[in-house]
Amino acid sequence: MKAVFKSKGSQWDIVVLATILLLAFSVVFGGASRENSLRLALVELAALPALAIFLNATADRRTWAEHRFAFLLLGTLVALPLLQLIPLPPAIWTRLPGREEPNLALSLAGLPTPWSALSLTPELTWRAALALIPPVAAFLGIMLIRPEDHRRIIAVAIGVTTVSIALGAAQLTIGGPLYPYRTTAAGEVVGFFANRNHLATLCLMTAPFAGAFLGRASRNRRPGDRFVVWACAAFLLLNLFALAAIRSRAGILFAVPAYTLGGVTAWLAAGRGLSWKRAVVVGAALAVLATVAYFGGERVVQRFEGGGASTQSRLTNWPIIAEAAGGYQPIGSGVGSFDAVYRAHEPLEFVDPTFLNHAHNEYLETWLEAGWPGALLVGAFMVWYGRRSWRAWKPTVPSESSLQRSASVAILIVLLHSLVDYPLRTEAIAVIFAICCAILESPAPVKASRRQTMGE
After folding, report:
1. Which residues face 117 on adjacent strands?
2. What was the pLDDT predicted at 279?
3. Is the pLDDT higher at 46 or at 295?
4. Which candidate, 168, 216, 330, 340, has a CA 20 to 30 Å from the CA of 152?
């Protein structure tokens, strides 16, 4: 019996290690949504062994049955682009909405009408399907490991966020050689990413977890908890400085719900008590906020004022995208086809040296590419998210659910940011988002006894 337990324990340790490596690999090499084919392929290849381990580990467990709705959503997400790649006979695909131009081009060229996939850009849809491998593997990994191991994974996420912020600080002083991608916001703080908005998203996703760690450590009296309190407080303050330096408008706006709900999470994790430590932390946070407002306020205001043109451009383009999407319903144009479809519908007066590679509204882009199936999937996810968040935030839930509460906040930040950007098109954000979803889906922990709380 002891040998069996040891075998299972070693198996879960392998799963934890594989998940940690996948997370680190995704952040380091998966920080761009385009012009990143080779590095993205490395992340996908690194995820394949992890995926095999996770699928093998689920063979003798009840995970599938206990979380069938979540796995149904995951399976539908994977199936959607794959179904769009199935070749269809000419009698079917030529009758689909939005396929008139390709059919007309074949007729004018005198070419026979071949079998064709539902997607207008099969190669890009295939790439989108492959890009799902890392987040799917990360979700399965978190679902398999023990709840206490979730904290290890999140600690790594906080660690890579800190390193990314440090890299961003070095980018301001050294410049070019430290930017990981050719197409990037040169002269700005981007860390491991090509887009500063996505670094801001990473900072905001990890902040609530740091708050949960801080609250939990302040409640306990175990060795090392004092260090955790101050380390998490330092990370939260560093995050605030980083957001001011990154100057992402969405990052600054969404810092309010992230830090507010993160503070509530920390308060609940601490058992709703009050101590001098938390008073010092709150006072330090207010001092840093004042400092950031004084020294960084001018740069932040300039960012909002200077971004008026790009914001107006997005607002102007959204009605055009919505109108174009209507011509491909109910099935959509194919996952990954936005760039090609938008170019075909872009008004001539909008054509200039710049181009719109994404809609900067994930919901609108999903409606265009995936049609009604994509909209239904988003709606089903919102239902799942609402139910699981209610479970995590119920007043009767013990403070041991702090990680689940933090995960719900992190997911909310991504959902909000997706209104004006495309964070989930970046592999690093997609993997961490999947980890948060798995933590939120995991069974609610039972309330620890006093002896357990004291570390026994």
Report:
1. 87
2. 52
3. 46
4. 168
Instruction: Please give the share of the chain, as a percent, with pLDDT higher than 70.
Output: 81
385 falls in which pLDDT band (50, 70, 90)? very high
Q: Residue type at 184?
A: T
| Structure confidence at residue 378 (pLDDT) | 97
**Token pair of 456, please?**
């026994």
What average pLDDT is seen over the chain?
82
User: Both tokens of residue 347?
Assistant: 């008004």
Please tell me which residue, 272 or 72, carries the higher pLDDT value.
72
CA nearest neighbour of 73 among 352, 382, 286, 404: 382
Q: Is the pLDDT of residue 382 over 90?
A: yes
Instruction: Tell me whether the omega of the peptide bond preceding residue 443 falls within 30 degrees of 0, making it cis.
Output: no
User: Cα(428)–Cα(40) distance, rounded to whole angstroms?
Assistant: 10
pLDDT tens digit sequence for 2-16: 332 333 455 558 888
CB 248 within 8 A of CB 197: yes
Give the helix ranges, DSSP H, for 220-337: 225-246, 249-269, 276-295, 297-306, 308-326
Chain mean position to CA 399: 25
φ and ψ of 448, to 5 deg: -70, 145
- Number of alpha helices (DSSP H) and beta strands (DSSP E) in the chain: 20, 2
Please check whether residue 7 is in contact with residue 46, taking contact to mean a CB–CB distance below 8 angstroms: no
Exposure of 46 in the CB half-sphere (CA atoms within 13 A) = 25
Name the packing angle between helices 196-219 and 427-441 (round to 10°): 30
Assign 328 to helix, strand or coil.
coil
Closest by CA position to 255, among listed 193, 307, 207, 190: 207
Structure tokens at 338: 């936005």
Q: Are 149 and 12 in contact (CB under 8 A)?
A: yes
Give the contacts of 369 (CB within 8 A, at least 6 positions apart).
332, 333, 334, 335, 336, 337, 338, 341
Which pLDDT score is estimated for 291?
52
Helix (H) or strand (E) holding 117: strand 116-117
